[in-house]
Amino acid sequence: MGKVLKIREVGDPILTKICDKVDIKNIDENVFDIIDDLKTTLEFGTGLGISAPQIGVNKRIIVVGAKKENVKYNDAEEIPITAMINPVWEKISDETDIQFEGCMSVPSIRGKVERYKNIKLTYYNEKGEKIEKEIHGFFARLVQHECDHLDGIVLLARVKQQDGFSTAENIRKFEL
Ligand code: ZN
């Protein structure tokens, strides 16, 4: 059982660092402990994904997972809690869309971010097995957001338009 850790918030230098790759040949107790803490911290919070730097660990590990009732996106699907080690993705079409995103490291603020709708995702699971899959829509957006964290990019840096920021309350008031 992992620990619920404090989420690092914007302004913390760890959120702008590039994370180190995990040595897939040596997935050890340390990596399992990080994954357990990420899962526990994610389930305790309100987010749909979490990355290691958000709990202060400079390694390329993310955990995603979305229960239907927590998902507010139209095209959202239920995503089982999944740990991904050294995740990478590439676009499989040029199609993008722009939607509001939130982030546990950016309290209260939502930002409109353009993301690819269709990507090929490659990662290693906890057993060190290589997994490749094509993912779309909300799931693809979530993975792109979490992978950004591993390169030191917080969603605020992805917002391009002047009206691209809001609060959750104002999204309900003005956007829906
Ligand atoms: Zn985030």
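The domain at 13-174 is CATH 3.90.45.10 (Peptide Deformylase).
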